Amino acid sequence: MTHIQTDRRRFLAWTGAAGAGVLLGACSDAGTIVAPTSALEARKDPADARVTVCGPNLPAALGSNTDILKFALFIELLEAEFYKAAVGSGVLRGKVLEVSTNVRDHEICHVTYLQNALGGAACEQDITFDFSAVLRNENKFLDAAETFEQTGVGAYLGALPLISDKDIRSAAGTIFTIEARHTAAFRAMNKRKDPAPVAFEVPLSAAVVRGRISPFVVEGL
Question: For residue 183, how many other CB atoms are within 10 A of its CB?
Fold first, then answer.
């Protein structure tokens, strides 16, 4: 596999003031959010809730900043495509649909952000997700949404100490906080007694994260 070094200047251009302005313009109006590139346009089969996108290889170990960014992008692609499929499924209603639409838009912004950080390493292979088992009804969706968001929180927390570049680490931290808010929102809608049940979050290793998401990845893991 070709190792592609992260272009730090490209990443800083998107984490600095100029990049923040571009992202704010792209992500502030939910009605204008679209998938960031044609490579991410889903080839969907409504019959089985599968979706195929172009994404990075999922690193087995987080040995570099590039590996960590690829790892984060893979997770964000899964989440973005999950919420896109869920919002369009007709299964969600009311507040659940409203919140899920907002979360979908956040995840698309995260994908855009990480794509621009990775450049050419963002699209290396076809990845096919299958969400059919968890889009049969709203309760199954809420269970899956809570699991995905909690996994994302643990993944970011586990990766943050491994990031050697302080600017990348800071940017990852901003996404981490949003994923934590998503988790609390879905726990509340899923009728958990406490949307934030612990005082300290548990970091997850790359291997644990891979195990949690693998049932939903048909191709490209």
Answer: 23
Helix (H, G, I), strand (E, B) or coil at 29: coil
What is the per-residue pLDDT across 140-167, written as a single tens digit (0 to 9) for each? 999 999 999 999 999 999 999 999 988 8
Q: Is 192 or 181 the better-scoring residue by pLDDT? A: 181
Q: What residues contact residue 177 under an 8 Å CB cut-off, 6+ apart?
A: none
- Dihedral over alpha carbons 132, 172, 25, 5 (to 10 degrees): -90
Which residue is associated with the tokens 């692609």? 77
Q: pTM surpassing 0.70?
A: yes
Sorted by where each starts, the structural domains of the chain and their CATH numbers stand as 8-12+33-219 (1.20.1260.10)
Could you give the CA distance from residue 24 to residue 50 in angstroms, rounded to a whole number? 30
